Amino acid sequence: MTDPAAKPLEGIKVLSFEIQVAGPYCSMMLADQGADVIKVERPGTGDTARGGAPMVEGPDGTRQSGYFLRFNRNKRSLTLDLKDERGREIFRELASEVDVVVENFRPGLLASMGLGYEDLSAANPGLVYATISGFGSMEGFTGPYSDRPAYDIVAQAMGGLMHTAGQAGGPPTWLGVALGDIVSGMNAAHAILLALFQRTRTGAGQYIDVSMYDSMVALAERSVSAYSLAGDVLERGRELYMAPWGPFACSDGWVALIVATERDWGRFCEAIERPDLIGQEGVTTSGPERARNMDGELGAAIEGWFAAHTRQEASDKLLAAGLPVGAVQTAEDIFTCEHLAARQLLIDIPDPVLGEVRLVGPPVKLSSNTAPVTRAAPLLGEHSESILAAQLGRTPDQIAELKEAGVI
Predict the structure, then answer these.
(1) Strand 100-103 to strand 128-133: parallel, antiparallel, or no bridges (unpaired)?
(2) Sheet-wide strand order for 325-327
(3) What is the C-alpha separation between 290 and 306, in angstroms, rounded?
(4) pLDDT tens-digit series, residues 188-241
(5) Following CA atoms 336, 337, 341, 342 in sequence, which dihedral angle do they give, to the nearest 10 degrees?
(6) What is the CATH number of the domain that holds 269?
(7) Which of 38, 195, 227, 403 is the most exposed place for a label (fewest CB within 10 A)?
(8) pLDDT reading at 118 higher than 70
(9) For residue 303, is it within any domain?
(10) Over 90: is that where the pLDDT of 359 sits?
């Protein structure tokens, strides 16, 4: 009988040939929920993220990549030279017994090595094979961009997010977080769970195709819908449908607010001691009308009220009126936030180089088991020998030969 307190993905085996962010974020989400993730890396260099900043120095002078630590906890590292047939054979052997393969290299790379979905699923019909790429890879759904390389900023730009981020008259703005990578990784993890669930009904695995471009357009659905339904092109800093909305400057920083309904507009006017604005002709009969007047006297009155108050004063007054408001916080604010401490979102992860690091933990909580999995991100090739011996039955002499040949 399954332990009811076990993590939901315990017993699920994942083989991940991954790099940088999207693939690693996907497999980390699975590992956080108990999946056994084997991270396949190139011998000698490994995931290029291992060289990413910030590089932090441990007590003995060894340097560790903070960039790598963000996405690789709770995994095991196996180095394999997939250019060598012996390395490819090891990959095939592992793929024959796992539930999931995750990869986010350029489309067609693994297939060209005989390690694509068609090759691996022939030996493992229940295999769920997830590919994350810039522009998609599934046969029948490729387009003129499918062979292009992509990084997060490219996906955000082409997906429409950067066009609406930033100040009016200013340049398109990257959103400050690798949404193209992280959301694509989340979508892949979601799709993997769907495929595993469907496998319980059919017994068959399947191929999963996640595109960074698609994922960003899905996030930009408000802009796409505005154009589809009304012909409006949403622009930076010029909200068409709702106001007040946005960060407002207080005397000591910024707070974010949205007034989404006419009821909330009345509450807002009372809170800022301007009840005369309620129902004022030409200004407040609807959200779009308010939005059109935010560049004039209405906007000046609202901005003036915020400027005359501290962040705490403005937040207290608006919260007392039942309005959604919050300070624009820095990472330092987040690190010292009492609410996040109560939520236990930041977790301590052991690290063989730095001793212990505090990172953002899983953002979801399941009542069956709320304790996070906190195993260290692996050193390069840390588990190669144990994986080969315990899972594939390689002898010490065979492992030594593979190491000597540079296969591992």
Answers:
(1) parallel
(2) 245-250, 253-258, 325-327
(3) 17
(4) 999 999 999 999 999 999 999 999 999 999 999 999 999 999 999 999 988 999
(5) 160
(6) 3.30.1540.10
(7) 227
(8) yes
(9) yes
(10) yes
Verify that 205 and 182 share a domain, yes or no.
yes
Domain coverage including residue 171? 13-219+347-404
Mean pLDDT of 73-78: 98
Q: Is residue 257 within 8 Å of 267, Cβ to Cβ? A: no
> Mean of the per-residue pLDDT values for the chain?
95
214 in active site: no
CATH code where residue 169 lies: 3.40.50.10540
Domain membership of residue 227 (yes or no) is: no
Q: What is the dihedral of CA 64, 69, 72, 78, to 10 degrees?
A: 0
pTM of the predicted model as reported, rounded to 2 decimal places:
0.94
- Cα dihedral 217/221/224/225 (nearest 10): 160
Contacts of residue 345, defined as CB under 8 A and 6 or more positions apart, other chains included, come to 360, 361, 363
The two three-digit tokens of residue 390, written as one number: 């315990």
Residues 86/92/93/97 CA torsion (nearest 10 deg)? 160
Q: Report, in angstroms and rounded to the nearest whole number, the Rg of the chain calculated over CA atoms.
A: 25
**Spatial distance between the Cα atoms of 335 and 337, rounded to a whole number of angstroms:** 6
Handedness of CA 175, 372, 7, 67 (dihedral sign): positive
Marked catalytic residue, from 32, 181, 209, 351: 181
pLDDT over 70 for what percent of the chain? 99
Sequence-separated contacts (24+) of 143-149 with Cβ below 8 Å: 145/213, 146/107, 147/106, 147/107, 149/106
